[in-house]
Amino acid sequence: MSTTADRAAFAHPLFTPGMTIVDLGCGRSPITAPPNARVIGVDLNPAPSTVDHVTATAYALPFATASIDAVFSHALFEHLENPLAALTEIHRVLRPGGHLALSTSDWSRAKLTPKTPNATAALRGHYLLHRRQGGDPFYGRTAPTHVAAAGFTNIATRTKYREDHTYKNLATHIKNALAAALTNPPATDHDQLTSAARSAWSWHKSATTGDFAQCWQELTATRP
Fold it and tell me: 198: number of CA atoms within 13 Å, CB side?
């Protein structure tokens, strides 16, 4: 299983002592940082840790223009309604020459074996829930275009696969999420959710062995 250090490894070459680094959407697992660097965790519900935290959204960062050396974000942008606006705000707070390090998932390239008909149907329901909450489960495909549109240069990307969940745990998670959604579903997709939930239950019941690896788009860029 992946660790916090694994998720931030691609960004570490950008960090040097003395930097001010923002970990955007840090949750309970802020990134590690070089000695003598200041890390500020930003989240809607920040958790106590060894770094400074502020409560804020990605659309209104509480930092002066051109005041931050680097911004790191993992597993946030696929959940945002307006990721381009968030990238534009990051561009604002970064100093010229400052770095962006972004890791975002692309479920369209996730590796799932065996990918049974029930698993496929359950995943369609999972994507529907993701979009209902305002996100894009395939955002990894769009991220480089948005980063360029926000004004960043020196954009470099790579695809990384990690086992963030076991095959069985993924089936359990999706089954539970769809079951919860059915307690108050919108009329427009009730039938689709019901069908997906039924498939998820069958998939979970039979998912004794298998492999799952999530696809992450890891991207670095510079604020000119």
Answer: 6
Full domain range(s) for residue 102: 4-222
| Residue positions counted in the chain | 224
CATH number at residue 54: 3.40.50.150
What span, in angstroms and rounded, lies between the C-alpha atoms of 44 and 78? 16
Find where tokens 């069958």 sit. 202
* Digitized pLDDT (tens) for each residue of the chain, 224 residues in all: 556 678 889 999 999 999 999 999 987 666 767 778 898 989 988 666 556 888 999 999 999 999 999 999 999 999 999 999 999 999 999 999 999 999 999 999 999 999 999 999 999 999 999 999 999 999 999 999 999 999 999 999 999 999 988 999 999 999 999 999 998 766 678 889 999 999 999 999 999 899 999 999 999 999 99
Give every CB contact of residue 74 below 8 A, 6+ residues apart in sequence: 7, 8, 25, 31, 103
Total count of domains within the chain:
1
| pTM of the complete model | 0.93
